[in-house]
């Protein structure tokens, strides 16, 4: 397992584009909350099935008829 250390900010998301959008916000002087919103908005586009109530779990339960 590799450990990463950042001295000025870090963004970890399930998709590289979401991480890049969060880092862009941080580089422009935005807050961690603003970076989180940018990352969440990007995840909504690149992984729509993982967004919303419960993410994938909600979709899986819905598909199973629960």
Kindly summarize this structure in a few lines.
The protein has 66 residues and is mostly helical. It is 53% helix and 0% strand.
Strand content: under 5%
Helix content: 40-55%
**How many strands?**
0
Give the rounded overall mean pLDDT.
79
The low-confidence runs, each spanning 5 or more residues with pLDDT under 50, are 57-62
Please explain how this structure is put together:
With 66 residues, this protein is mainly α. It has one domain. 53% of the residues lie in helices and 0% in strands. It contains three helices and no strands. It has helices at residues 16-27, 32-46, 56-63. Helix 1 runs antiparallel to helix 2 (32-46). The longest helix is centred in the middle third of the chain and has 15 residues, at 32-46. The radius of gyration is 14 Å and the shape is flat. The chain starts with 15 loop residues before the first helix and ends with a helix. Mean pLDDT is 79; it is low at 57-62.
């Amino acid at each position: 397992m590799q450990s990463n250390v950042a001295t000025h900010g870090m963004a970890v998301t399930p998709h590289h584009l979401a991480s890049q959008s969060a880092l862009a916000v941080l580089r422009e002087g935005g807050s961690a909350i603003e970076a989180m919103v940018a990352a969440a908005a990007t995840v909504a586009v690149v992984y729509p099935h993982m967004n919303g109530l419960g993410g994938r779990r909600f979709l899986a339960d819905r598909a199973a008829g629960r």
